[in-house]
């Protein structure tokens, strides 16, 4: 694309994606909230607060003036899920109506229980929206370690174009049209990863963790089907791929949060000052599940623990002692 790629949000993932797009040959405008931060990053060519030790690609231009994104060929929205409505609203005021917005946050809007694509379409109706999701730790990606992710957009041609633009030698982007399936995978895996971390923290063993991933995947699939996602999508990178990654590594902030809870840390301290998207989306996820009679016992257990209504041990006990049932 001749016009630059715009990135709104210069946290760990926004900065890693800026380097990815630059490595794929694009000029990149990386927006952040303060001029001080933009100047510091422009000077040092590193984002020491959010992605320490990684050199910013020469093609990336840090800026603090959101209106600079007006010229972008596409804008990647990479701020926390709960800021999506505000950010999309601000972008709607400055972007041409045909500029695609690619959602990179993983979550559900807590106040309205709305999927993030719906939030964006609420504030920017008729403009193209896409989702990028899949197994991808910012630090791995920024260090050039290989991974593959999915980009979905209802307009299949646009999905293909965006996937091509962002793909590089170590970042392979598949494309598809199942927007709902892709965004559900990213939002739900964060909640399930908290459960896996908690189980690890309680020292319940690798077998328990594998069982939890499998049962978590079963409920993720049921939920996605109930909300119009395709099973094949959930079996792919943005579903199973990201679930397995996030549920099995303390590099995940959601898993690490669960791990600390399992070690006995308080809900307040366990986040350790990091963004833990599963805590913001758990209640919305189970509320949406109940609204369509989808059984999500693992997500329910996480929501109960986060609400202070249940201990981890009691939650495990109640999951293990549900009535015997068919696996399907
Ligand atoms: N870090 C990863 O490995 C990774 C990978 C894939 C997806 N994601 C998703 O990307 C999203 C962002 O995650 P991250 O890792 O970059 O988080 P982060 O905590 O590293 O960075 C968050 C960024 O958002 C900005 N921000 C915070 N509050 C804001 C507000 N109210 N308005 C505007 N900007 C605000 C911060 O200044 C920062 O630049 C999350 O939804 C996460 O699930 C992260
Ligand atoms: O650190 P987490 O738990 O937010 O996970 C980061 C990415 O979503 C992994 O794909």
TrEMBL record:
SUPFAM superfamilies: 6-phosphogluconate dehydrogenase C-terminal domain-like (SSF48179), NAD(P)-binding Rossmann-fold domains (SSF51735). Keywords: Cytoplasm, Lipid biosynthesis, Lipid metabolism, NAD, NADP, Nucleotide-binding, Oxidoreductase, Phospholipid biosynthesis, Phospholipid metabolism. NADPH binds at residues 13, 33, 106, 138, 253, 275, 277. Its EC number is 1.1.1.94. Substrate binds at residues 106, 253-254. Residues 5-158 form the Glycerol-3-phosphate dehydrogenase NAD-dependent N-terminal domain. Its main location: cytoplasm. The keyword Protein transport does not apply. Sn-glycerol 3-phosphate binds at residues 106, 134, 136, 189, 242, 252-254. It catalyses: sn-glycerol 3-phosphate + NADP(+) = dihydroxyacetone phosphate + NADPH + H(+); sn-glycerol 3-phosphate + NAD(+) = dihydroxyacetone phosphate + NADH + H(+). Pfam families: NAD_Gly3P_dh_C, NAD_Gly3P_dh_N. It is found in: Cytoplasm. InterPro entries: 6-PGluconate_DH-like_C_sf (IPR008927), 6PGD_dom2 (IPR013328), G3P_DH_NAD-dep (IPR006168), G3P_DH_NAD-dep_C (IPR006109), G3P_DH_NAD-dep_N (IPR011128), NAD(P)-bd_dom_sf (IPR036291). Pathway: Membrane lipid metabolism; glycerophospholipid metabolism. The active site is at residue 189. It comes from the Bacteria. GO terms for biological process: carbohydrate metabolic process; glycerol-3-phosphate biosynthetic process; glycerol-3-phosphate catabolic process; glycerophospholipid metabolic process; phospholipid biosynthetic process. GO terms for molecular function: glycerol-3-phosphate dehydrogenase (NAD+) activity; glycerol-3-phosphate dehydrogenase (NADP+) activity; NAD binding. Residues 178-316 form the Glycerol-3-phosphate dehydrogenase NAD-dependent C-terminal domain. Gene3D superfamilies: N-(1-d-carboxylethyl)-l-norvaline Dehydrogenase, domain 2, NAD(P)-binding Rossmann-like Domain. The keyword Cytoplasm applies. It is an enzyme of class 1 (oxidoreductase). Belongs to the NAD-dependent glycerol-3-phosphate dehydrogenase family. Catalyzes the reduction of the glycolytic intermediate dihydroxyacetone phosphate (DHAP) to sn-glycerol 3-phosphate (G3P), the key precursor for phospholipid synthesis. This is Glycerol-3-phosphate dehydrogenase [NAD(P)+]. It comes from Microvirga brassicacearum.
